[in-house]
Write the structure tokens for this entry.
Amino acid sequence: MTLDKFRFTQGEPILVVASLSGRQVFGDTLSATLESATKRDKVDSADLPATEDSGYYQGTISSDHEPGEYRLIVEARVDGRPVRHVSSLSIEPDLGDFGGIDSPYVSGNDLVIPVRFDPDHAGYYALHSTGDLVTRHLLENQARWLQSEGLQPLKILAVMDLAGAGGGTELADLAVSIAYNDSWYNWPVKQAVRAFTGIDPQPDNLGVVNDLQTNTARNLSVGPTAIPRLRFVGGGSSYGGITKPFIAGTDDGVVPTHSACGATTASGIDSCSNSISLAGKVSGQNGPSGLYYNHYPILMSEGANHSAVKDTQTGNISVPVVNNTVLNGLQIDFASRTYNQRAWWQLWGSGDQYVEVPNSNQTSMSNLLYTTLNN
């Protein structure tokens, strides 16, 4: 069974192609079921009828569902017995109509490429993942760009970086490597890269992936900024865990913790804190040796994957790191509670100490961010 990609925009049809061959007895139709990756609830289904080409079946299933991680299950009956194949995919929100790119022009030493964007809904849009790197370049240059046009610089209070990839990701390093070495033995690595990028990596289609290489990203617009960068970090699994073996330290399935936290080096780490784990356990941790200037890890969540940090997924405990402080006039005041918990094998004693945002598993991390900081 194959998909043309692993990341789909909400409402985009998901094309599914499957093949069966051999001496077994097959039916004329296969079934495809889409279910949520967390709750395993069925959200859609479709039949895959046989095509004119012997052994091939094809159909589409809708992606017009809540953004998040999903499992696509294709089932066939072979000699009267069910046979299943499961693939992981993600559905991302449709933010609106990107009308295209206007004519580029040179302004000073900068190449300016205007992009027309017509959002579906009014309001605030937070940049996620690669947006961390884009925003860093904007913050370093926006005053000069605007003043050269006779305009006042933007007044920015703070930046919220959700699963920020400003420190790059080892998956981008892999993508570039695979693009120039398409040997058969790289098949497992190629599948991980396809899950991350949604494409078969080739030298001419990498785009921003080039900038997300760890060494490249960490040398782009790295000057100190007076604007606080508030970091919101996940440690869950994406794409069925296929990408995790290729990323240093803990990660959210796409972005390593060293990048999401704002660590000054690309060394693998397990937490944004040296004393609190992503699960909230208060104990010594393999944390960052240092953070970029004005970068503050605010919330961590062991269960939230790359998409869940920004979407509406619930069920994940959020852990406060930098809290009860004021950053550039913005009050950081997440509720918190500390408690002790014994593991099943601990027969006596008070157990280990944990810290969490109370009832944070009842809401999404992005909604928790909004309701707490929008005060």
